[in-house]
Amino acid sequence: MTKPASPQSPDSAAALPRLAVSGVSKSFGSNLVLRDVSFSVRAGEVVSLVGENGAGKSTLMHICAGTFPPDGGTLMLDGAAYRPASPRAASKAGVALALQETAILPDLTVAENLFFGDEPRGLLGLMSQKRLHWDAEALLADLGFALKADRLGAELSAAERQMLEIARAVRQKPRLLILDEPTASLSSHETDLVLKAMDRIKQGGGSVIFISHRLDEVMQAADHAVVLKDGMLTLDAVRGGFTRDDLIRAMVGRTLTDIFPPRPASFTDKPVRLALEGAVAPGLKPLTLAVRAGEIIGFAGLEGQGQRPLARALSGIAPFTGGTIAIDDKATPISSVSRGIAAGIASIPDDRKHEGLALDLPVRMNVSLFALSRKSRWGWLRQQLEQTFAEEARRRFAIRTTGIEQPVRQLSGGNQQKVVFARWLAETPKVLVLYEPTKGVDVGAKTEIYRLVGELSAQGVAVILISADMLELIGLSDRIHVLFEGAVTGTLERSDFSEEAIMRLAAGPEGVLGHAA
Amino acid sequence: MSANAYLVRMKPAPASLRAVVLLVLLLAAFFVSARVFSPLLLLDNIRQAAPLGVVVLGQALVLMMGRLDLSVGATASMANIVLCATFNGDMANLVPALALTLGAGALVGLANGIMATKLKIPAFLATLATSMIVAGLVVFFTGGSPRGAVPAQFRAVTEAWLFGIVPWSALIWLVLLIGLMLLVHYTMLGRKMILSGANLVAARHSGIPSDGLIVLSFVLCSLLAATGGILLSAITGMASIGVGNGFTLDSIAAAVIGGALFSGGVFLPLGAMAGALILFVVQSLLYLLALPPAAKFIVQGGIIVLALALASFRKGRSS
Q: Looking at domain A17-104+156-253, which CATH architecture does it have?
């Protein structure tokens, strides 16, 4: 555990911290989410809170914003005890939270959403539409956000909804503004605007806590970084006292080389497994691609740039409508899921609960489908074989369960994902399509999944990795294609991998400046 | 080890056992009230419950697919009319009578299945519509006064006892039950049906032809409903309009008492059988106690509440 270098600068030694969190713990049921977390935020400081999914960041933020109380520990706001009973109480005390999943009312305009519940009053205390509109325009212009005040909530894109949510929080002129992954759906230009808005709050003496997965952003904007891992504080350092690598190590508990499998230097001697030639699908512009045996090809991009159509076309759910597809030099149109399976494609869906698993059925029935259908004779289900296969899958994929008869619903996210893998990998496929393979999965299971992918690639499986997780893309891929509006706008080789490079390409060919205007 | 695996698999689900326990309690009440314990009385109950029991099997299958069939009553009633009209009291017409009746039933199921999949009409609305159409067609073709009758020899199906011990209708019920159990729990087809019923999208994305399986379940359900109608006709011996209409709600009630879930993915043949018997024994018990017919509905409603409350109570404790 790294101790803070010295958060109190000498000249403000007397000044109390804006927020002091000490010894905070929280558990949900038997699940301990936060364990004795202490840190402080000074006035006029931007604190970046970093950690893997499930590390406890959001829980900590919700405690600060009054959504629920901590089980133990105390909070102090500007030296006074701070125990908000509700988000409303927190907001009265000057703490505003802008959520990642925004609550924008679809039938109200941007201006109405912005001032919801606190509308400017005109004559006779009635709501004044004109003032509402003016004030909203002024605030948005001030922030530099390209949002029209009269647009309806329903018309906004994910990025625009996020900007609105941030503007709404900024409007309250909070003493402490908490932003939960504000930039996850934003382009680099929009991200700059958000970082500028944070800067402005800082100049005005306010404090900001922002959660982000993008380490470049953290390095750029944070005056002070706090890292959580498995509910515990693993790093607390001010600017200059930490590097990117420090952050990563504190987040995952080990260095990247340990969690990602080693990659061979070159694949040029390997045969081409999967070849696409001008393949088109709804939402996907013509794509030409060659994946050699054992290669892991990453697809990056902002949300909704063609990742889903690509995954669905490759798995045969929404097949390619044109172009040629060849597997091992043989033309193989993937016209349906079962054709895809027959051709040796295994496809891990991004939404395991809806698209991958029968949650109320036991592990046994969820893992055994492909193993059984291949080996069944005369259509009879071979019970003994199923039993053995399920037990073996449980061992091979290290699925933590009370037994193969336990319903999948009762397993953790990581173990559910391993069940999906176990079903699809009953036999080694030729092509493995991974769509957000570690979404909502804990670090331990993530590491196991990465190791598994590494093993498969060593066996000559061609892997397509479609992911929004930068660390995963950079750590696992041999080459990364960046998608923008359904087309590949750039390709990075392993030596050129960086989050900045990916983000630059993800923003689109002309940059986003023209876009925002 | 291997025998053990089979034993574990053969162990009835808790929901089935709950229904069986409920059934045993009701039977005890029945025999106490009758002041006589006679296995023959029990077997006679089974004999008379067989038509409903067969229909419940079909309903349970459709429920397993996460759907609902509101047309089983109309289909059974139609089967009665078609069977009597084709038989016309002559055993020589056995083959055409059975073929036509089951064929008509299969058509209803096909229509249900196609509406529920290709036309994407919610199953309970689609089957409600077919139920109305079928009932209307029956009245249209018979002019309201159905003709024909089941020949006396055919009535042996429900009225005669094998070796004087086992009613034939009970045997038919048992054979169909075992057949469906084998289909669902011991074949790949059945496994794919369960997976489709438990999560349709996940099944499709695993290459399972779910739409076809849903159509199959509706066809089987309507065939079983028509079979229930045939057994009922053997009991009554004559054609009368709407004779099987009560099967629609009774079959849903029995399946649910037997542990079926509206969310799909569950098929409990033992539970389905116990559910049908429970409804029937309740009826006999109330008759024995000389309670008014209205009491039947109140008690049936109460039993559904009791069965489901027990189920959610158990679930609450285990999680």
A: 3-Layer(aba) Sandwich (3.40)
